[in-house]
Design brief:
elongated, transmembrane helix, transmembrane
Amino acid sequence: MASKTDWETKTIFKKLILYLLGYYIVYYVWSIILVGALHVDWHQLGKYPFRIQRSEFSPHRRDDALGAWLAMVLTYICCMGLTYGVVKATRKSWDYVVTSSVLHLLLCIIINQAFPVNWIWWLTILLASFILSVVSEVVNYYLRDMREIALDNV
């Protein structure tokens, strides 16, 4: 359940910084695991989460392009726990998910100096963001807002 301080700008900013930091830590952890597992050159690790070209991001290929796609999907799956642990408010969970996705889009554009035109990248990020938004709200609702309140006099 949201408290009064959850709506203050200072609190939102702190939680957003924590959420974004956790988002990219999770993204790079999965990238490191997949770079090692798929025998990709380690010098590609820095830009691994920001791949947007079809030759660099595709589940159909069995090389580093598959790893980049898997890193994004696994990051969004792990962010369910991040949203539960950091956001702690049902009505705000989708805000943090959408903000992290939009920021990731902007960083991809800045780092690659190109707009993503890969339909697989767009489909993946839009579906992952939508599913994470819905699941995060449900998880926060049932595990935080709907938990039983212990009463002393019962």
